[in-house]
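Troubleshooting entry. The earlier prediction with S-adenosylmethionine gave an output that would not parse, so I re-checked the input for stray whitespace and re-submitted. Clean input:
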Amino acid sequence: MARRRKKQKIQKPSSEIQAEALNRFQSLLSQEEFAALQEALEQPLYSAIRMNPLKVTPDEAAASLSERYGWQTEPVPYCTTGWWVKSAGVPISQTIEHREGHYYIQDAASMLPVELFDFEDVPAPLILDMAASPGGKTTHLIAKTMDRGLVIANDSSHDRITALRLVLQTWGGSHTAVTRFPGEKFGRWYPETFDRILLDAPCSMQNLRSTESHPMRSITARERKQLSHRQQRLLASAIQAVKPGGQVVYATCTLSPEEDEVVLEAMLNQFPGKVEIADLSARLPLPAPALQTDGRAVFNPAVQNAARLWPHRYGTSGFFCALITKLESVGGSFEEPPSRPFEKISLFCLSQEETVNLSDFLVEHYQFDLNKVLEENSLTLWRRMEKIYAIPEAFLTHFNLLPFQAVGLLLGETGVNGYELSHEWVSRFYPLFQTGRFGLSDDLVESWLRGEDILIESGDQYSAGMILIVEDTLGRFLGLGKMIRDQLKNLLPHRLAI
Ligand SMILES: C[S@@+](CC[C@H](N)C(=O)[O-])C[C@H]1O[C@@H](n2cnc3c(N)ncnc32)[C@H](O)[C@@H]1O
């Protein structure tokens, strides 16, 4: 029987794809602006990093990392935790601090959307990140709220959930839950529930800046239209799910008007007088208004309040975002959300007695005050088999039946010799562990980071099976090790070993 050959889609070279997109966008810009854009595309696109205030003091960390690794940095003007790295002795992706989540590598344009939210009047907000994977902007949301309230990081793609979970583990937030549902569902399942919603929409990525990790691909008019319809449905769901008075940020990394201005225009038509697009001109260092027209339709003047970042404006890749306030209720249908009680997945609240045992163990071995951390962070402890998780109270209060892929932060697990802490818990609360540390000499750091065990001559001063917190001579956390006879067994998670 003749086998049907699978049709291979041949991808055009990236220069051709970029030229195609440029052609399409030319009529949207004046002659001078288009020339400026072409010139900007000849320049390098600088990498940028965003610091993690849960683990470092951003300004201090930027200064010390620049000195340590020979980086030339410059602040991103609209993001207080963001820096461009204009030249780097040691690559930004190859440092101990990057592996430990002290900063996230992110294009500077992607730092704008989360910065648009106001959080002053909501110190512990309920936030939905509707299309979250791999989680760059979720980490920003966690940072902006200093891990208070709750961020539900949702993504409909099964294949992209693992990446999202790993990014969040490395960042170290505890007030998070990862879910896997079509974003279109949230409006009907949870109407008027969230204080803030980020919709970083799936898009055609026509941002004029191909990188190795995000190559631009060629796209047909039909695909753009389909994407536009999906974006409109997702945005309508976000508007329904946000509380009256709450904010939604709509963002894309494409410059195609069908996916940007046209989506906002559709929202204004669907919810007349009930939503408002904030004028971003006062918040941005340079003007970056959205389009008045795409050459066919003239948009509602309010659409221009959004920000369209052409690459020549801020030296970023192309980007679009809008800050929307829901002025009043929009009604709409309600549907019962899915439900899965904790018992169904054998997740049970830690008993009082076990909490006391665990807390005594942590004081004895590490001088770590568990109760203080739980209280200050509004966390409670839950056990699933041998694993113990710290789960935010906001999740328990508002979403305890929502089926999740992950929730909270793994504290550790029960082992033969008591409790074994997780890498992510120690990495997050590292300065609070006052004892139980093991200082690694400089000559051993490289092999340790490759995941190798090390021999310890005076091993008998540690009890067998004890988990030690390994640090280098600069006091940086390098992972956990387990004492087995005269060896320190390397417990560095595989994903972190070089
Ligand atoms: C632009 S990416 C998000 C990037 C992410 N916000 C970040 O900053 O790292 C868009 C995401 O939307 C997801 N997605 C696509 N369709 C979706 C839908 N209907 N509901 C929820 N997520 C969807 C994709 O799997 C993809 O991960």
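This one parsed fine. The longest strand covers residues 242-252.
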